Structure formats: structure tokens, C-alpha cells
Amino acid sequence: MSDRESMPTKDLIRSCGTLLSKIPGVFSVNVSTDSLGDISDIHILATTRRNAKQISRDIQSALAAAFKLEIDHRIISIAQIESDTYAGVDCRDRNAEVRLRYTGMNVSMRSGKRTYQVRLARDEEEFLGEAECANAPRQKRRAIAEATIQALEAALSLEGKLGLVLIHNIELEGIQVVLTAIECPEASDGRLLIGAAHCARNDDEAECVVRSTLDALNRFCGRLSVQGWAAGAGRR
Which domains does the chain have, with CATH numbers? Predict the structure, then answer.
């Protein structure tokens, strides 16, 4: 007998609400039923830190795995607010399991300009950032960082809120380091977000720029933990 079959309707709905409230980024849940006791509506209040489509998929997967409930995405309504806390609930700690990974970079040339596309992924969802520049080393680094920021903004629902201040190669006692500074109005203390990546002799400089940019955002988001490069990731 499944959990659903052995559980009275009221207890099932309560258990569904408890389960869904544990999904990263969710503040509040309200599950409604029709006259037959079947779930008719699921209303969610969530942070803008996570993509609504991903939250919806998490809801469907959680209910299917826990209670064998097949939920139509059309009955899921998600309202999002730009906050990490609501009614005493802090979503930042609960988002600690969110994982992004760098999956590769595309580079193309046209009319003397380079276009960089940086790809990040979370679960099965991919986020793309793109930037263009002249064929010059400094502009190349800046374009890669801007493309990375654009992909991060899409992944974290922060579109247009991050600004690249600088991307610079420095040497510290013979060690090559890529340094990145990012401006974010949502940073509570107004400080720049600083990231760094060691660029060893055989490292791809473009990927070092990506690592440095992600490192800057790690310090701000806390919950953002970028996994190691995916197998085969790189420029294509």
C-alpha cells in the first residue's frame, strides 16, 4: 500500500505542505483540494533567488517520489518576492544544496569581433551568458567575465543586478592570479564582491576567468557552490 492510499486526505494534504515547504527557496505553501479530495491547486510563495520553473519541477518530483502523486504543472502557482526572509523563514540556509556547474564555453569570430558564450547548469537546466568584444586580450577577459555574470544572473534570478567592475591578471610572489570585482546593489554592506582564481602554467586562461568570477559570487550568495568542471567542459 502506498503512502497516499494509507493516509486520510487531510493528513496527506498536511504532509504534502510540509514536504513542499522544505524545497529550497520556498517560504510558504497552500495546497487545495476539490470535492473528491484530489489536489486542485498548489500555491507557493518563494524567493526570486531560484527559477520558478525549477521550483515547479521540484514540486512535481517531490510529490511523485513521496506520495506517488502525478501533478500537472498547470495547477502550480508560484509568487516570488525579492527577499531571503519572509515571516521568520530564511531561505538562504535551505538553499545550501543548490549546485551550479560550469559546462563549457563557445567562442566564435565575426567581423573581427569575438563572441563568448558561457554555459552553467543546475540539475538538467542550463543557463547561458553571452558577451562580445574586439580581438584583444584585456577585452577578451572582460567579455568572458560578463558572459559568466549573465549566466549567473539567469540562474539566480538576478537579471541586470550584477555589474563587472574589473577583471585583472596579477602576480603574487610569482603566482599568476585572475582577480575579479563585481558590484551588486543587493550586497547588504555595499562592498564590492571580490573573487580570485590561481592560473597555473597549463591552465586555460578563459576558464580561470570563469572560476574567478564564480568565486566572487560565492562570497555573496553563500548557498552557491560551484562544482568542479564537468567532464569535457571547455571551449568548442
Answer: 9-94 (3.30.70.1350), 99-227 (3.30.160.270)
